[in-house]
Amino acid sequence: MKQRIFEIKENRQIAEGTFKMVLKGDTADAGGSGKFVNISLPGLFLRRPISICDLSGGELTLVYKVVGKGTGDMAQMQPGETLDLLTGLGNGFDVSACRKEALLLGGGVGTAPLVFLARELVAIGKRVTALLGFNKASEIMLADELRSLGATVFIATLDGSQGTRGFVTDILKEKAGTGNPITFDCFYACGPMPMLKALCSAIDAPGEVSLEERMGCGFGICYGCSCHTTAGPRRVCADGPVFKKEELIWQQK
Ligand SMILES: Cc1cc2nc3c(=O)[nH]c(=O)nc-3n(C[C@H](O)[C@H](O)[C@H](O)COP(=O)(O)OP(=O)(O)OC[C@H]3O[C@@H](n4cnc5c(N)ncnc54)[C@H](O)[C@@H]3O)c2cc1C
Ligand code: FES
Q1: Reported pTM
Q2: Is 48's C-beta closer than 6 angstroms to any atom of ligand 2?
Q3: Same domain, 84 and 132
Q4: Which atom of ligand 1 is nearest to the CA of 62?
Q5: Can you give the C-alpha Rg of the chain in angstroms?
Q6: Of 3, 38, 92, 199, whose Cβ has the fewest other Cβ atoms within 10 Å?
């Protein structure tokens, strides 16, 4: 973990309630896909964790949804302003777990870490299909970025305003019925807990999911972010946020 000061190069809205921030700074140890940064914001005691959306050419991209004070303040920030980040946090996705064909599943802003993951998978010669789920068409984000990296992208919206009506798992069902099913040997997912729980029981292939628990310290000392695993309680910030499908024990919520 390193504390670094980054300069904002770009900060703009890319979908309803969602912003993309591009930062310039020392990204040497910011890490691989699935890792996250923890952002200090003026006047707020706790840092706010945000996944690395992309890391390329010395620029770090974050995509965040405005849900409260911290993300609301971030949305007001201007190019040229600076941010204090803890970088290199979390374990990240294991791209070597994919033999040939990877399925990426993103729900809402959980799509963000899949961009860097797709970049890494394509770079080592894997074929990538991404299934992205949103409430409605105005919330769709990062589909073009994933396509430009070489991924095949399918969209689902809950209200049916674009793509398949329903959840990301409904895209799989729909394609299975066309005689042209989506093939993959492993999956990677990030999104709301109910989505992750549903797809882990719906998909037989091995997979990894990135959890987004509420965090306190963000680096392993407060135990405020525990999840249940076959090896006992684990800290999402320090032992995750990425866990293998088979090690997670889903709680009733
Ligand atoms: C490892 C990790 C990676 C994350 N990556 C991203 C990302 O790439 N993009 C993004 O938009 N968000 C991401 N989040 C969630 C993000 O950290 C929170 O949305 C943010 O901290 C909220 O801060 P706030 O001050 O705006 O809201 P607050 O005022 O702190 O909270 C506002 C509302 O958001 C809810 N909330 C806050 N934190 C979380 C959380 N972690 N999970 C679910 N609900 C929460 C609160 O319960 C409350 O209802 C990530 C979280 C984790 C743990
Ligand atoms: S947030 Fe403190 S241990 Fe994870």
Answers
A1: 0.95
A2: no
A3: no
A4: 8
A5: 17
A6: 3
